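Attaching the record inline, Q. Sequence:
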Amino acid sequence: MPDIPAAVLREYGKPPEFASFEAPPGPSEGQLLVEVEVAGLNPADVALGEQRYTVPSPPVPYVPGSEAVGRVLESAIPGVARGDRVYVDAPALPHGTFASRTLVYGASAYKLTDDFDAATACTLGIVGVSAHGALVHRAQLHPGESVAVLGATGAVGAAAVQIARLLGAESIVAVGRNPARLEAVRELGATATARIGDDDIEAAIRDGAGGDGANIVIDMLCGPPAEAALEAMAVGGRLVQMGRSAAETMEIRSAVVRGRTLSIIGHTYMRMPPEIRHVAYEWLLQKAASGELSVEAETVPLAEVTNAWTRQKSSPGHKLVLAP
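Structure, as predicted:
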């Protein structure tokens, strides 16, 4: 079987290189062979390549990448045919999505129309569904509640701000480091902002939530920002922990958690049931198609994967998608 152009990770802790890799075989039962249009680069891909993700890393060498938009070349699942355009998020490693072709498990495939923008469809996947799942599946946001988003200047955070607005949150406090990005997020629906390093995060969240504190905190940061947010939560509040961009750990005061009956809830995309992901993804596609929700994506040639990987490690503030 001839080789194909791909990003190949040969050593843990180092970026992948643009090279050739053995083409994936034809699909076994329950799988799809997909010609990749664009593939999404995510923090989880980097963490997996550095052996610091929540699941074991695959043996090297392998092709990274966990999601893509593309055209079905061969199908071994019912309901999906050759020629269908799909979003997929379950690669059969070592044949990840950072290649001209990928082999995926088809249960997660979602059919797309031919006219939907590929980069947007890819960004609404892990980025959009993660944010939606945090607010709906885990925090169970109700209209009129107050939300604080820690890490709102990143791709998931910006999506979370918009989703909270669309779901009827009364107030949304965006917390981040980049002042320009914070202003951009305010235009997306944040009612207040707080800059890490300059502002009192606890006071900003409490004041932004009308003085009673936040009902929901979406936490992509951990560390001191999350500690401050816990102090500014309302009785019965829910903190959804889904990232560690600021630190690996945080200190929690027992009296705050007990006295306000707070819930600290873990959340990760990979643990969301497929049916929940599908419902969220369909909702996001509809909101994007109507213009009610927007995502920022930058398309980068697959040949520049090494540079894109390095940029992802320093949080580019928007989605990077790779085009073979």
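Residues 9 and 129 are 27 Å apart (CA to CA). The domain at 3-115+294-323 is CATH 3.90.180.10 (Quinone Oxidoreductase; Chain A, domain 1).

More tomorrow.
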